[in-house]
Amino acid sequence: MSNIKNDKGVFVISLDFELLWGVWDVTTKAKYGKHITGVKEVIPELLNIFSRFDFKVTFATVGILFAENKDDLQPFIPDLKPAYSNAAYNVYENEFKTIGFNETDDPYHFGYPLFDLIKQSNHEIASHTFSHYFCLEEGQSAAEFETDLKAAIKIASAKKIKLSSLVFPRNQFNADYLSILKDHEIQVYRGNPISWIYKPRKFSAEVPLIRICRLVDTYFPISGNNTFSLIPQNGSPVNIPASRFLKPYNKNLAWLEKLKLKRIMKEMSYAAKNNELYHLWWHPHNFGVNLKENIANLTVLLTHYQVLQKKYGFTNCTMKAAAGF
Questions:
Q1: Torsion sign (Cα): 238, 2, 128, 72
Q2: Of 139, 152, 204, 221, which residue is least crowded by CB atoms under 10 Å?
Q3: Domains of the chain
Q4: Is 290 left (phi over 0), alpha (psi -120 to 50) or beta?
Q5: Of 248, 298, 251, 284, nearest to 36 (Cα)?
Q6: Are residues 200 and 286 in contact, defined by beta-carbon separation less than 8 angstroms?
């Protein structure tokens, strides 16, 4: 499939499958634990709805989640670890000391049965790095990132998976690391929307003004349509840029849900009419609570996709396929 030629509009969904590894440094089990344990129900529901709509997605998975248990994980832990200046980001010195043995006694850090369900499906499994690596934080280096990536590739290979795509954790896209992706046969990555409010930043630079602008942009078009024409990269990894984060249902903002969906559907329609890419993303743990409402919203969007498919030939594929691989 070669949608990079822009002969038709294409709808891509990528999911950042990370469990607590993605948020351990910004929340706690007490505050967010239900979202994480709820993923046990979310993944089967997502696989079911994608099957019903004959829709393929990309699951960008933290490498640690490829492990069945702690013993299975141990051989893949890299010797060279990220030397973040902020010690609070050091997952090996902090969060690793709290993990249990497997998914049964620690569903926050292990999810092999869920990973296995995804593996048995027809969806793409991509990399979200091995340790949920922060590519723009001070102190870490290209060598450390490469070591982390090699660990992700190695554990994927052990599970008979060839990684072709990557999603940068916290959307900390680092152009200096694209050559490393290329060296290790990662052909595709998810870049950021063009607007300044989505510019790649280290975590401390995510100031309240930016967060407020992003919240408003969920409902009102302050950043535009966020659809893209795909451009060949002359041998470099292909950017399949994100268009929009699917903000999860929040009962306190329920009165704005129709506006949120209308905003997304308008962008989808623009992409379909203009033969461009639209790329929606979120984390499975975002659906960990209010699952019924979140699946209902997703159903609305996938139903709209079917309308656009019939009217404009709007198509769907994974990140890898959208890049022409």
A1: negative
A2: 204
A3: 3-322 (3.20.20.370)
A4: left
A5: 284
A6: no
76 close to 141: Cβ distance less than 8 angstroms: no
Instruction: Look at residues 14, 30, 236, 16 and name the one whose alpha carbon lies nearest to residue 133.
Output: 16
For residue 32, what are the CA distances in angstroms to 23, 283, 289? 9, 13, 10
231 pLDDT tier (thresholds 50, 70, 90): confident
User: Percent of the chain at pLDDT above 70?
Assistant: 98
Question: Among residues 173, 165, 182, 88, which one has the least CA distance to residue 136?
Answer: 173
- What is the rounded end-to-end Cα distance, in angstroms, of the chain? 7
Q: What's the CA angle centered on 273, arms 268 and 275, to 5 degrees? A: 90
Instruction: Tell me the average pLDDT across 178-185.
Output: 97
C-alpha to C-alpha distance for 318 and 125, rounded to whole angstroms: 9
pTM of the model: 0.96
